[in-house]
Design goal:
Blueprint: H1 11-26, H2 49-54, E1 59-62, E2 78-86, E3 92-95, E4 101-105, E5 111-115, E6 120-123, E7 129-132, E8 136-145, E9 159-163, E10 168-171, H3 190-196, E11 203-209, H4 219-229, E12 234-241, E13 247-254, E14 260-265, E15 276-281, H5 284-288
Parallel strand pairs: 4-9, 11-12
Antiparallel strand pairs: 1-5, 2-3, 2-8, 3-4, 5-6, 6-7, 8-9, 8-10, 12-13, 13-14, 14-15
Length: about 290
C-alpha cells in the first residue's frame, strides 16, 4: 500500500524555525561585526538651507536671559553686533573675533534651544526662528553693567548688551554648505597621512557642532554608544566653527576594545595649529566631549 510521503522536522530545526519567525515578526536585525555600513543613517550632511533653519526634530532648551522689552516699546539705539554662539555653560552669547564674548539680554518671550544637529536656534515671542548659531547679528539697544542683572548666564564683570530691537541677521551661518570633499594636509604631516590611509568603519553620520558645545547629547552619540555596547567599530565626523568662523573637523573612530582614535583637521583654523592632530581617547564619553 502506497502512503504519501510525510516530512518531519527535528526538534532543533523546529526551534530554529520558530526563532526566525519571531525575529521576522519583531523586525530584528541580526548584525555581524563585518556587516557593510547601511545605505542610510543619521547623517545630516548638507541639508538644504530651508530645512536646516527650520529646526525640526527634538530640541534641548537653553537658559536664555530676557528682559521685559517688547517690539514697539521705546529703547536705546546703540548698535550691538556679534556672532550668535554658546559658551561652555550652554549660555547664548555674542562672539567676536579674537575670542571675546558679550552677554546679552534678549526681548521678552524669546527662547533658544539646541537641536540634535548641534545648532542653537533663537526664536522670537511668536516662536519663529530669527537666528541660529553662526549667524552674524546686528541689533539695537544699550549696554548695562553686568551687576545690574542677576542670571546664571550673566556673570562676571563688564557690560551686558540689552537687545531692544528686532533681530537682524547681517550674514547667515554657512554650516549647511558641503565640506571640502578631499581634506588637505601637508605631504609630511603624519597625522594626515594616517587619516588618509585609515580603514573605514561603519558611519554614525556627520554633524555640525555649535562653538563650545560637545557631542554627548547629539544624534551620532547614541549610534556610537550602541556600537560600544555591541563591541563593534563605528565612526562619526563632527565639524565645528571657531568663534572666528573657521571650520575644524574631527573624526571619531571607535575601536572594538572601546578606545577612540581621534583625527582633527585644523588646517583651516587661522588661529589654531593649522595642522592635523591624532590622539587616542581611552573612553568614548571623553571623545564625545572632545576633551581628550
Amino acid at each position: 500500500m502506497n502512503r504519501p510521503a510525510v516530512h518531519t522536522l527535528s526538534f532543533a530545526a523546529a526551534a530554529a524555525a520558530l526563532v526566525l519567525t519571531l525575529a521576522a515578526v519583531a523586525g530584528w536585525r541580526l548584525l555581524g561585526d563585518d556587516e557593510p555600513a547601511p545605505a542610510s543613517g543619521p547623517s545630516i550632511t548638507n541639508p538644504s538651507a530651508d530645512a536646516a533653519r527650520a529646526g525640526s526634530g527634538p530640541t534641548t532648551p537653553v537658559d536664555l536671559p530676557t528682559s521685559d522689552w517688547r517690539p514697539g516699546d521705546g529703547g536705546d539705539d546703540a548698535l550691538i553686533t556679534g556672532m550668535l554662539i554658546t559658551d561652555r555653560s550652554n549660555c547664548v552669547v555674542l562672539g567676536h573675533r579674537g575670542g571675546r564674548t558679550t552677554y546679552a539680554l534678549w526681548p521678552a518671550g524669546y527662547t533658544a534651544a539646541i537641536g540634535t544637529d548641534g545648532v542653537v536656534r533663537l526664536r522670537d515671542a511668536e516662536g519663529e526662528v530669527v537666528a541660529e548659531s553662526g549667524d552674524e547679528l546686528e541689533l539695537g539697544g544699550g549696554f548695562h553693567e553686568v551687576s545690574e542683572h542677576a542670571h546664571p548666564c550673566i556673570r562676571g564683570k563688564g557690560e551686558v548688551a540689552v537687545v531692544q530691537s528686532e533681530v537682524t541677521v547681517a550674514r547667515e551661518s554657512e554650516h549647511w554648505l558641503p565640506r571640502e570633499a578631499a581634506p588637505r594636509g601637508a605631504p609630511g604631516d603624519r597625522a594626515f597621512l594616517a587619516w588618509r590611509e585609515r580603514t573605514p568603519f561603519r558611519s554614525c553620520g556627520e554633524q555640525f557642532l555649535a562653538p563650545f558645545l560637545d557631542g554627548t547629547g547629539l544624534a551620532f552619540a547614541d549610534c556610537m554608544r550602541d556600537a560600544l555596547r555591541e563591541r563593534r567599530t563605528a565612526e562619526a565626523v563632527v565639524t565645528l566653527t571657531t568663534v572666528e568662523g573657521d571650520p575644524v573637523t574631527t573624526y571619531l573612530r571607535l575601536r572594538r576594545n572601546g578606545t577612540v582614535e581621534v583625527f582633527t583637521d585644523a588646517t583651516q583654523d587661522k588661529f589654531g595649529s593649522g595642522t592635523w592632530e591624532r590622539r587616542t581617547c581611552r573612553r568614548l564619553d571623553e571623545a564625545l566631549r572632545l576633551s581628550c
